[in-house]
């Protein structure tokens, strides 16, 4: 696994701008730390963290072209906000270009931007690590969210989804229905736990 990580790191250095590459390493190590804390597979967390934004630096126009070429569905919201496509396109490229055949890793890349209901432990780890990695700009409630990440993973997930919806709303950015669905699912899950 380590040799493969080194090879992919080298490739990604050429694919991503410097800032995105640094972020990628931050997510990779944060995901590994969370995997240690939650008894998840550390190598899978490293690989998913490393590759989660592998499609991020492709232009919007090319993201849409590549999705068309590879028959990946593009919704109206995604067409209007092509940045959203870096998650599903990244998952596809992880398999096709970086030869990752592990479904769990591919799924974690695919769901890292909007989340989804019923996320696996690895998906949750990548979703959260993406948000809390040390190089991430200070977002609202960051200190609390970072602490929660290692104490209550579902509460942390919910908190990030909630803050993301507030952020998107405040900027009049169209919400992807999957972000809304994920939020509702984890809200209901936490409400049930409290009853
Ligand atoms: O790729 P990163 O910047 O590391 O993080 P990310 O994959 O979570 O992407 C963050 C961006 O995605 C941020 O600019 C907001 C956007 N985003 C997240 N959920 C939605 C969304 N954009 C739209 N239009 N709708 C969403 O529901
Ligand atoms: Fe991303
Ligand atoms: Fe990211």
UniProtKB/TrEMBL annotation:
<dbReference type="InterPro" id="IPR003607">
    <property type="entry name" value="HD/PDEase_dom"/>
</dbReference>
<keyword id="KW-0378">Hydrolase</keyword>
<dbReference type="GO" id="GO:0000166">
    <property type="term" value="F:nucleotide binding"/>
</dbReference>
<dbReference type="GO" id="GO:0046872">
    <property type="term" value="F:metal ion binding"/>
</dbReference>
<dbReference type="GO" id="GO:0008803">
    <property type="term" value="F:bis(5'-nucleosyl)-tetraphosphatase (symmetrical) activity"/>
</dbReference>
<keyword id="KW-0547">Nucleotide-binding</keyword>
<keyword id="KW-0479">Metal-binding</keyword>
<dbReference type="InterPro" id="IPR006675">
    <property type="entry name" value="HDIG_dom"/>
</dbReference>
<keyword id="KW-0408">Iron</keyword>
<dbReference type="InterPro" id="IPR005249">
    <property type="entry name" value="YqeK"/>
</dbReference>
<dbReference type="InterPro" id="IPR006674">
    <property type="entry name" value="HD_domain"/>
</dbReference>
<dbReference type="InterPro" id="IPR051094">
    <property type="entry name" value="Diverse_Catalytic_Enzymes"/>
</dbReference>
<dbReference type="Pfam" id="PF01966">
    <property type="entry name" value="HD"/>
</dbReference>
<protein>
    <recommendedName>
        <fullName>bis(5'-nucleosyl)-tetraphosphatase (symmetrical)</fullName>
        <ecNumber>3.6.1.41</ecNumber>
    </recommendedName>
</protein>
């Amino acid at each position: 696994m380590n040799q493969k990580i080194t090879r992919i790191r080298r490739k990604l250095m050429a694919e991503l701008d410097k800032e995105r590459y640094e972020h990628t390493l931050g997510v990779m190590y944060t995901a590994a730390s969370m995997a240690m804390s939650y008894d998840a597979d550390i190598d899978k967390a490293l690989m998913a963290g490393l590759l989660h934004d592998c499609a991020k630096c492709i232009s919007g126009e090319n993201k849409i072209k590549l999705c068309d070429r590879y028959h990946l569905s593009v919704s109206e919201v995604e067409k209007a906000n092509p940045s959203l496509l870096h998650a599903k396109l990244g998952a596809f490229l992880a398999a096709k270009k970086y030869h990752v055949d592990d479904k769990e890793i591919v799924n974690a890349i695919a769901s890292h931007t909007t989340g989804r209901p019923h996320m696996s432990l690895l998906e949750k780890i990548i979703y959260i690590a993406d948000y809390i990695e040390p190089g991430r700009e200070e977002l609202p409630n960051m200190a609390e969210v970072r602490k929660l990440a290692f104490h209550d993973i579902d509460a942390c997930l919910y908190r990030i989804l909630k803050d993301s919806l507030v952020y998107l709303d405040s900027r009049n950015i169209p919400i992807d229905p999957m972000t809304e669905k994920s939020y509702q699912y984890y809200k209901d899950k936490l409400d049930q736990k409290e009853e």
